[in-house]
Design goal:
Elements (H helix, E strand, L loop, with lengths): L3 H20 L4 E5 L20 H22 L3 E8 L4 H7 L7 H17 L3 E8 L7
Parallel strand pairs: 1-2, 2-3
Helix pairs in contact: 1-2
């Protein structure tokens, strides 16, 4: 699901970058993306099967990004995550159905995703939402 050697190399590069920008006086970092950081493991309804690649990737990225978020917070950088609205994975699409306003299942899944994101990563200060990144699913 993830090339772990490449991920580790990317984390080392990102940590160097964080140290550089903190030394230059920057105060925050925005990282992409919500869809790769939530597993829905604590959701009251099943979004992903245990072996779903999206779930597995979220668990692996979550552990890695948690370390990166800790490094950023230790440098005094505020952290934000981005998401498209509406983001979608195959599992989310199966659970929620149509990606349209008023879909109660989609709204619930979004709440569960945000609950998980902020509980799992207390270092985060907020979420940036991009509206209009629509694809064929919309």
């Amino acid at each position: 699901f993830v090339d772990r050697a490449q991920l580790e190399a990317g984390l080392a590069r990102a940590e160097r970058y964080l140290r550089t920008i903190a030394a230059q006086g920057y105060t925050g970092v925005v990282l992409d993306n919500l869809a790769h950081l939530v597993s829905f493991d604590g959701a009251p309804a099943r979004i992903y099967a245990p072996d779903d690649p999206c779930r597995q990737r979220a668990l692996i990225y979550g552990e890695a990004f948690g370390r990166l978020f800790d490094a950023a917070a230790a440098l005094g950088l505020e952290l934000f995550v981005t998401t498209d609205m509406q983001w979608a994975t195959p599992g989310l699409r199966r659970y929620a159905g149509p990606l349209r306003a008023g879909n109660a299942r989609l709204a619930a899944a979004n709440r569960w995703a945000l609950d998980e994101l902020f509980a799992r990563f207390p270092q985060l200060r907020g979420l940036f939402v991009r509206v209009g990144e629509a694809g064929g699913a919309h």
